[in-house]
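Continuing from yesterday's entry. The apo prediction looked reasonable, so today I'm repeating it with coenzyme A included to see how the binding region is handled. Same sequence as before; SMILES copied from the compound registry.
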Amino acid sequence: MVTMPELSIEPMLATDVRDVLRIERASFTTQWPADAFYTELTTNKVAHYYVGRLGDEVVAYGGIWVILEDSHVTTVAVDPARRGQRLGERMMAHLIAEATQRGAAWITLEVRESNVIAQRLYRKYGFTTVTVRKGYYTDNDENALVMWAGNLRGALYQHRFSAQRAMLA
Ligand SMILES: CC(C)(COP(=O)(O)OP(=O)(O)OC[C@H]1O[C@@H](n2cnc3c(N)ncnc32)[C@H](O)[C@@H]1OP(=O)(O)O)[C@@H](O)C(=O)NCCC(=O)NCCS
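Holo prediction written out below.
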């Protein structure tokens, strides 16, 4: 049996931002500056950010906005050295569970058309492509797929989500 590392997921603190930026730089061609994370943590009332730790080391992070029944995954990333160990999936499942607990019924995100790894993860959690935003990413004019999942509170989604979380446990 393959044992998966125990990821502890907690709210992101300002003191985590330095570690988050290290993963951010290794993960995205267009990166959020430190100020963007600090603003999200301190002034955006609809924002909820989390870090995943293995021991003391921050290895993953993710964020959502929840506005009434709608939620939006703003970012999710795993340290490149730790990928392929279900850590991104655990973070994603956590974001969806938090969004649901905070009252969301629907969840959306944008993903680069070329990012097939992330798309596969999202599809696993019920996301489907609803629209394409042409040239959304200004660094290379790449299209964004706009994906949605829901109804998060419906019996169908809950059943499937519980089964997937049980597999992760
Ligand atoms: C996307 C990302 C968070 C996935 O994290 P991860 O910990 O490596 O992924 P996991 O091990 O949890 O895998 C979960 C699912 O993701 C998909 N996936 C992960 N690695 C994959 C790979 N190499 N090839 C294809 N699909 C893959 C699969 O669907 C997988 O589930 P499955 O194996 O049962 O099909 C990670 O690759 C990452 O940080 N990428 C850079 C940042 C990024 O692109 N973020 C998304 C922005 S929209």
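Comparison notes:
- The chain has a mean pLDDT of 97.
- The pocket of coenzyme A is lined by residues 27, 76-78, 83-89, 111, 115, 117-118, 120-121, 124 (CB under 6 Å).
Will overlay with the apo model tomorrow.
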